[in-house]
Amino acid sequence: MSKVARTGLALMLVALALGMMSVAALPARAANVSLSLYGSYAGGWGTTSASETNPGPTLTVNQGDSVTITVSSTDGFNHQLLIDYNGNGLADPGEPMSTPFSSTTTLTFVADQAGTFHYLCVIHPTAMKGTFVVQGTGSPSPSNVPGDSGGVLVVVGVLIVVVAAAGVSVLVLRRRR
Ligand SMILES: [Cu+2]
Fold first, then answer.
1. 171 pLDDT more than 60
2. Structural domain tally of the chain?
3. Domain that holds residue 123
């Protein structure tokens, strides 16, 4: 291998390592978060069956989290949990909603929108409500486009890896000829 090729190969490997590091250095995201809510018409919502209030406890997660809420009815009535992203008090397409439950069920969804929202029981929206906060992750984005600032870093990191890997293979192939 010529000196130029060796230097080129070394540079490519450095770029490859840097690219991989930039992907690995991304802030921790997309955690799995498990929450419990107990609800009744007379009491509202609580994180335990003994602490129901209306409004219920404020639930806070990070944007991108996979959220599982285990919901239990403590009065034997049917309830149905809704994350009311648009605040109209109604179930809309794209808003996470549990099945109706008179004992226990789970609702799993990805908290993809950052902001402060309400959760409520669709059947008893005024008697069973609370606040649901999705904290945005990463540095503040200059635009108001919902989604991630982390995505750009991933794309840049992956591009660096791909280009560096291509460079390495070209050099290796040339050497074989
Ligand atoms: Cu209810």
1. no
2. 2
3. 32-135
